[in-house]
Write a structure and sequence with these properties.
By secondary structure, the chain is α/β, with parallel strands linked by helices. It folds into two domains: about 290 residues, Mur-like, catalytic domain (UDP-N-acetylmuramoyl-L-alanine:D-glutamate ligase), CATH 3.40.1190; about 140 residues, Mur ligase, C-terminal domain (Protein-Tyrosine Phosphatase, Chain A), CATH 3.90.190. Helices cover about 30% and strands about 20% of the residues. The protein has a nine-stranded mixed β-sheet with strand order 2-3-1-4-5-6-9-10-11, sandwiched between helices. Strands 12-13-17-14-15-16 form a six-stranded mixed β-sheet, with helices on both faces. A two-stranded antiparallel ribbon has the order 7-8. The radius of gyration is 22 Å and the shape is globular. The N and C termini lie far apart (about 60 Å).
Length: about 450
């Protein structure tokens, strides 16, 4: 009976996937329909020999793309959720479509990007051998509440047979490793680190173990850095994979003092994503020199970073994450670290693709003040939430003559087409498509 059920479930999922592709539908639909008919099917299939999973607030898709690139370049037999469907429905589609009709995995390794809040459902039957947790930030408050609530949700997904691979520089993430099998990655003190947290808020101010005030030796960004609690002794753990040197200007990072990776894009996020990819490759048995070769100069294909030309304007699209101020802060850091004169277009036209909300309180957590930089010559504010952006910028010290407020993306683009300075566009997944459609048309 079990064999028949598996056969029917795999066949059904593959069939729905075939027609879904023809209709341009996403990869979560086949899994969703299959789970309605066969709700516990994941416990009946034979998964790949090794399962590596990645979860956290930011960087999941980019990190998984980098890991997949390294493993594929090394010749590994790999399946991963390339399309980013990271809840149980998408993971089900991925695993069943990679299975034979008897339910046996074709690939040797499965690489799973998992939504942090739904990991406990995804990993109810399919347990990862290694679970990477990248970070936990204030993220999508309407859906996710606060980092501690997301922490509790991830915690429910962790069993004793999973080896955790944790960001040692994130004080909340590191606590997952208490009394568990855990390995850590992180960064030593780097040339661009700061002695104080100059962000709008500080989520590392208090110890996540005893709630006493916590001190930092240095900050990489926001609350990510080297911390210690004088009351209970909680501190940054020792790391197995470590960024020992990095230069955002030279686009380089060095891991464990000897493996230097050339970055295609200069950001601290890219440094951490590359570090995780290096660690995952090490776990998968890829030689360090092969991982370095695959990672060096690799340009992301996921659409998080894209170059564009529109009229006279040339620039780079930085896809940040609405309702996630740390994501925006890192995009702003890319802008302000550019040595050339630049323009910036900030779009907030639709807050979420997944649920309806008009809450823009998260705009007040973003360090927009940092755009008051000599290299930033003009700032375009656009989208249906232009008024909210305008109010937020009104309390900064940015000169008013630098601000160009537009009541729609189309109006902003009409002005932007004559922009002579290199332009960064900062927006989210929800608004990325609208921007790119206008660019594709070439006019407004």
């Amino acid at each position: 009976m079990k064999k028949i059920k598996v056969f029917l479930a795999v066949l059904f999922c593959k069939t729905v996937r075939f027609f879904a592709k023809l209709l341009g539908r996403g990869s979560s639909l086949p899994g969703a329909l299959t789970l309605k008919l066969f709700p516990n099917i994941l416990k009946d299939i034979t998964p790949p020999e090794k399962i590596i999973a990645v979860t956290g607030s930011n960087g999941k898709t980019s990190t998984v793309e980098l890991i997949a690139h390294v493993l594929i370049e090394s010749g590994a037999s790999l399946v991963y959720n390339k399309e980013g469907s990271n809840q149980i429905e998408g993971v089900t589609t991925m695993l069943l479509c990679d299975s034979t009709l008897s339910g046996k995995a074709k690939s040797k390794i499965a690489l799973i990007e998992s939504d942090e809040r739904f990991a406990k459902y995804t990993f109810k039957y399919i347990k990862p051998d290694y679970l990477f947790i990248t970070n936990l930030y204030r993220d999508q408050l309407t859906r996710n509440g606060h980092p501690e609530w997301v922490y509790a949700s991830i915690n429910d997904a962790i069993s004793d047979d999973i080896t955790l691979v944790l960001n040692a520089d994130d004080p909340l993430v590191s606590t997952f490793g208490t009394d568990r099998k855990a390995l850590y990655f992180g960064a030593d003190k780097l040339s661009f680190d700061k002695d104080v947290n100059d962000s709008v808020y500080d989520d590392g101010k208090y110890c996540p173990v005893c709630n006493a005030p916590m001190s930092y030796d240095y900050y990489h960004y926001n609350h990510i850095g080297s911390y210690n609690c004088s009351k209970c002794g909680y501190k940054k753990p020792e790391t197995k994979w470590t960024i020992t040197d990095a230069s955002l200007e030279d686009k380089k990072l060095t891991i464990n003092g000897k493996h230097t990776i050339e970055l295609s894009f200069s950001s601290i996020y890219q440094c951490y994503n590359s570090l995780v990819a290096f660690a995952a490759a090490d776990i998968a048995g890829v030689k360090a020199e092969d991982a370095v070769k695959a990672l060096s100069g690799y340009k992301m294909q996921s659409g998080r970073i894209m170059d564009f030309t529109f009229g006279k304007a040339q620039g780079t699209l930085l896809v940040s994450k609405h309702e996630n101020s740390v994501s925006y802060d890192q995009s702003i850091n890319v802008v302000t670290h550019d040595k050339n004169d630049v323009a910036v277009l900030i779009i907030v036209d639709k807050i979420s693709r997944k649920y309806h909300t008009e809450d823009t309180s998260w705009l007040w957590d973003i360090d927009f003040e940092k755009l008051n930089s000599d290299n930033v010559k003009s700032i375009y504010l656009a989208g249906s939430y232009w008024g909210d952006l305008d109010v937020r910028f009104s309390v900064t010290d940015i000169p008013k003559d630098k601000l160009i407020v537009c009541d729609s993306v189309e109006n902003a683009m009409a002005k932007l087409k004559d922009e002579e300075n290199f332009t960064y566009v900062i927006t989210c997944f929800s608004d990325k498509g609208k921007f790119l459609e206008i660019v594709k048309k070439g006019e407004v």
